[in-house]
Amino acid sequence: MNNLTINDLLAKIAEYNNEEVEIIRKAYSYAEELHKGQKRQSGEEYITHPLNVAYILADMHADRDTVCAGLLHDTLEDTSITKEDIASIFNKDIANLVDGVTKISKMNFSSKQDQNLANTRKIITSITEDVRIIIIKLADRLHNMRTLSFKSEFKQKENAMETMDIFVPLAYYIGAYRIKSELEDLSLQYLYPDKYKRIEDIKLRIEDDSKHCLEEMLQTINGILNDKNIPHEIKVRTKNIYGIYKRMEQGHKLSDIHDLLSLKLMVDTIANCYQTLGLIHSKYHPINDKFKDYIGTF
Hints:
The chain is mainly α. It is about 65% helix and about 5% strand.
């Protein structure tokens, strides 16, 4: 989000955790004071980075300590503050989270002589006794990738390769699929800009051509499930650009990719899941070799 402010973050927090707004405001003010005078390569005040990291976390409905740690995640490395100071002013959990992110940040991912990529990921997961540390680091990397245009072309490609090698698998490992997909697309954009642009154009055209059909299906399914009083949520998803690129690089034609567009439907119980399946199949006939029952099979 461009020109993000503390009020944007607090409004996002208030959507799901209104009682914690004040401590997050306090963490922001503390980080802003500590980073005063520091600038990003874009020329922006440095505080814009931890603020954006915290917003990414809040958008995931992260808890209070995680969002506070997102605001403070660079303070141990870039200022004179100590872990004990953070524990005293806030709490031990926030201090431990910030310390954990700092340890990952100090790892030299570019030096691969003595370790392979799998070992690097194992080291990260072994030093992070709290999965929230990895989530904060992924949010940190995501904002850095979103603002990579201010770095040299060499640094852009180096960061993109590092993201694909280290952080995309980590995001997959912890189930942060939305972050994984965006990191993949951002990396591809810098590694193969021409291929990225070509597939982006295809994706936008497909979305535009299909929007009326998807909207009609969305309304039909909503109506069917509402009639049966089945609580549900539906999201429209388009396969990310990297996902399309990967399939095409494997020799598949665009027409072979059956999940380019999808409706993701969530219900509250297994019983409602199977009832919903029956209702939808009565309206939209399944493609037999593409149907998988993960509940009954796994």
